[in-house]
Amino acid sequence: MTELEAIRARHSVRQYLNKPLKPEELATLRAEVDACNRESGLHIQLVTNEPKAFEGTMARYGKFSGVQNYFALVGKAGPDLQEKCGYWGERLVLKAQMMGLNTCWVALTFTKVRSAYTLGDGEKLAAVIALGHGATQGVPHKSKPLEELARAEGPMPDWFRAGMEAVLLAPTAVNQQKFLFALEEDGRVSAQPGHAFYVKMDLGIAKYHFEVGAGKENVQWA
Questions:
Q1: Residue ranges of the domains in the chain?
Q2: 3-class DSSP state for residue 45?
Q3: pLDDT tier, 98 (very low <50, low <70, confident <90, very high otherwise)
Q4: What is the spatial distance between Cα 89 and Cα 99, in angstroms, rounded to a whole number?
Q5: How many whole angstroms separate alpha carbon 154 and alpha carbon 197?
Q6: SS3 221
Q7: Does the domain made of 3-132 have the CATH classification 3.40.190.10?
Q8: E strand map for 113-161
Q9: CA-CA distance, 4 to 182, in Å (whole number)?
Q10: d(C-alpha 25, C-alpha 132), whole Å
Q11: 198's torsion region: left (phi>0), alpha (psi -120 to 50) or beta?
């Protein structure tokens, strides 16, 4: 399965089976986390066999069950933390999907279990991503029309449209899809968040999708 195929197949899953991750799955995921941290400067951590984060009232409100594993998205506090966590976290989401695992982005409806992850000086936990063998494969989310989320002067190039088609499949907080991608006159792509909660994290996720759909070699960010 390619990353683009994973984008098309992946849906948010909140209910998980009591099925431990295999040693080889853990090894692959940890290697991918290490690669993301090296490239991004983040401090993402894979937390396993830790059910407390999803046993509280907020998790029940969010209709989570059976979650025992998650990625803790940790990094230096700053204005770019959310977007970076969105971008690199989505790389991990798609890697998990390619392995036959399921995921769900979670920003509020979980309990912080401080003993489960490490915070360095100046670091904070931005969000987590539930991970495991889903009880279902989830269902597709509704998307806004492409034209509401993209702007291009003149005909839209095939690579830009392909990137936007991948963006439409990106998970966002409460499915808000509050961002705008624009093809500038010089061929570069600008991407701006709207005004709502977690829009910068949503933008990071969407930018990763755009690169996968358009081909990273075609994208130069403004």
A1: 3-132, 146-218
A2: strand
A3: very high
A4: 15
A5: 32
A6: strand
A7: no
A8: 123-132, 150-152
A9: 21
A10: 10
A11: left
